[in-house]
Amino acid sequence: MSLPPPAGPAAPLHYPDVGDLLARVRFQPEEGRIWLDDQRMLLMHSSAFGVLRRELIESLGTDRARGLLTRIGYNSGSHDAELSRKLRDAGGADAAVFGGPQLHMLEGTARVEAVRMEIDEEKGHFDGEFIWHGSAEAEEHIRLYGIGREPACWQQIGYAAGFISRFMGRPVLFREVECRAQGAPHCRIVGKPVEAWGDASGDLAFLRADALTAGLATAATPVGSAAQDLLGDADVVGASAGFNAACHMVRRVADTQATVLFLGESGVGKEVLARSLHRVSKRASGPFVAINCAAIPENLIESELFGVERGAFTGASTARPGRFERAHGGTLFLDEIGILSWTAQGKLLRALQEREIERVGSTRTHKVDVRLVAATNLDLREEVRARRFREDLFFRLNVFPITVPPLRQRREDIPIFMNHFLRKFNQRNGRSATGFTAQAIDAMLSYRWPGNIRELENIVERGMILAPEGGAIDVVHLFSGGEQLGSGALTLDRGGSLRAQGSSAAQGSSAAPASAPAPAAADAGLPAAAAGLSIDAMQALMIERAVAQAGGNLSAAARALGITRPQLAYRLKQRGLKQRGLKQRQRRDG
Known about the structure:
Elements: H1 19-22, E1 25-28, E2 33-36, E3 39-41, H2 46-60, H3 62-88, H4 93-106, E4 111-120, E5 125-133, H5 136-145, H6 154-168, E6 172-178, E7 187-193, H7 194-197, H8 201-204, H9 241-254, E8 260-263, H10 270-279, E9 288-292, H11 301-306, E10 307-308, E11 320-321, H12 323-326, E12 331-335, H13 342-354, E13 356-358, E14 365-367, E15 371-376, H14 380-385, H15 391-397, E16 400-403, H16 414-429, E17 435-436, H17 438-446, H18 452-466, E18 472-473, H19 475-478, E19 490-492, E20 498-500, H20 518-523, H21 535-549, H22 554-561, H23 565-574, H24 579-589
Parallel strand pairs: 8-15, 8-16, 9-12, 12-15, 17-18
Antiparallel strand pairs: 1-2, 2-3, 4-5, 5-7, 6-7, 10-11, 13-14, 19-20
């Protein structure tokens, strides 16, 4: 692969003061916890990390070990990008991006020298070069393996990619063009958007679980669709741990004949994964037949599944096969299977048990060779307890369940989806939207996505339509369909001020802030004086109110805030808030 030449001598860029990041580090030895803001951290011996690397390499092989460590780094970088953006948004893009190298140093990885950096969020442009002095990962690799021919800072490369990709709202790939493990005096990395590399497929494989062992040709990956999944499907993208776990399960079951049950909320991509499962299975040459059980009237479901003979009922002028027969030798996908009627469930159970079907109006049976894949967004165990779903059918379907996590639990994938869908709709409609504004990226990463990937796809298409030709997509272009940004009736702008939900400021326009929206603040259970508070002060106020409204129950308050109980306890202690005082305030306010 072609590498850019090392940059000539240039004055290093200067970082902002690191005090704001240092202030977020807290040790709680009595609790056995270390915190970086609200993320729990671990101290780890560098030599122990070296042992872990060696065990992974020896047990998994170099490529798979590299992929695993790269994905671990990507996850860490993505989380650190959240903290840097939260603390430094008001200081501009450069200050927020420089939080990555500074956090990297703060976490003991290496001394990072910023050589050059160009960044334009609205055009999706990033071009950066950094030097790692004293890379811990390279030193451990040298200690255990000596000087070699390949770069060795896999986890650190993943960190850089995860941090900048999360910040930019599009996939950014870093390459280590010099490495101490190769005998260079230091490690040097260069980062650009995936499209700018031109030959990114090999690097992207390390972000996809099992991509290197799945026997798939990564060279066929279209340039720019970063993290096209291990299954090679153009509409299944992602790099998060939850997504990769689901893909790994698909790969494990693909070459068997087991029934697969996809579980997850509406819009998470269950059918896309089902199609990918079929495509990499031994039945790939056979048909893939899908049916949405919710779209078929109850009186027609039997004829749709099993077929009908001529004259079986009024209107049946010709015989026709059902979905089981049409899927013979391939895969039958039953979506939304949880809503089937009790009668239809019984007939489906018999077909699965006997591997034969009987057309409506016929007395002959037909043997069928079908692999069944089903999907539902319902809790089938609860449906069984409520006697809405047959227990025997549930056990027949629940051979190999795969849970697809919702988008809010795989936020590392949001920038990848944003870029993927923007390219897709630009090409489809002949448009040239360049990227997303910083405000739009913030909003996309903080929104809860109740409609998951399907909703994200629709919102990006809407943004592409409304954005100016050749310009960037802003928040007002994306969230113009009544979506609720933030929690409750209020949201915070990039400067940390409170805005009324539904106002032009909340929607990302440049209108002046609503400085004192007393009715909106009252609706949210917050005092009117909350307007204009800093992010920290606003968080403290939200925590106080949540704990007070939960009657001092930290677990309930944490659920209301969407964080864990230890995170809430840490924030209470960090801000000097006392639970007893909150209870007293609740009684006083009551």
